[in-house]
Amino acid sequence: MPLIAALTPFEHSVSHTGRNRRAGAVRRAGRPRGDHRADALRSPCLQPRPRVPSSRRARGDRRSPRDGSPEEAARHADAVVVGEAEDTWPRVLDDARCGKLEPVYVSTRQAPLAGMPAPRWDLIKGRRYGKSVTIATRGCPHRCDYCSIPLLYGPGTMRYRPIDEVVREIATSPTRAVVFWDDNIGANPRYAKELFRALAPLKKWWTSQCTANAARDEELVALAARSGCKALFLGLESISQESLEATNKAHNRVDDYHRHHCEPSSSRYRCPPGHHVRVRRRRRGNLPPDGRVPRRSLR
Hints:
It is built from ten helices and 14 strands. By secondary structure, it is α/β, with parallel strands linked by helices. The strands form five sheets. The protein has a four-stranded parallel beta sheet. It has a three-stranded antiparallel beta sheet with strand order 1-2-3, with no helix packed on it.
């Protein structure tokens, strides 16, 4: 949302509000003080299209699961934006101002990340969801079947911001803690290592997301820790190699969960000494030594 606010023309005023502070409200300039009605609301959503039982849809069951399609979403909104915001959000605001919103707006290009405007951090109130949020990359080179990222940014594609622009932005962030909302910040090890070296002098703390591939590169993990990385969220997804391969996530190797010292201890995994990074589990329990789960435990 802070980036969407930065893309909003100056004639509009923007606030960050709504349930869980996830929605953005846009108002035209000149509204009387105390008038909190919004001319446009934007609520972001990453939603791949799941399979919906045809039998329930044929019965017209209104309680059928939401299919995640633009058509379904349009039943609950005045307009739906599909894809990236850089080439669609200004059109949405112009049409809203003229009272001629289209049901669906579809992004037609991949936005260049060079020269990206600084996020509107000033709109984020409180600390619950983080204040200094930004991105260094966009996309992911993998094509996991269940993931929305290939649908949103293009399958197997990655884009990168110039590192000097990222560093200048982080240097001016209002808090020491920074959140990189990248989908896979370690996807390109050469870029990631250069970025981490450039971030280290800033003495910031940061978190982001990556895949388990990052654990295979000891230099990358060490540079991330030295640059201020406090947590990397990654998806193990399954302890069945067959299941991983069935969802096109064969780059995760179950054997590596043990080889890289990811042995569960209470609710945490132990990591190599000196890296000072922990992976937290949502549920307690130990992985079997061979990484396999008896069929009865899956019921």
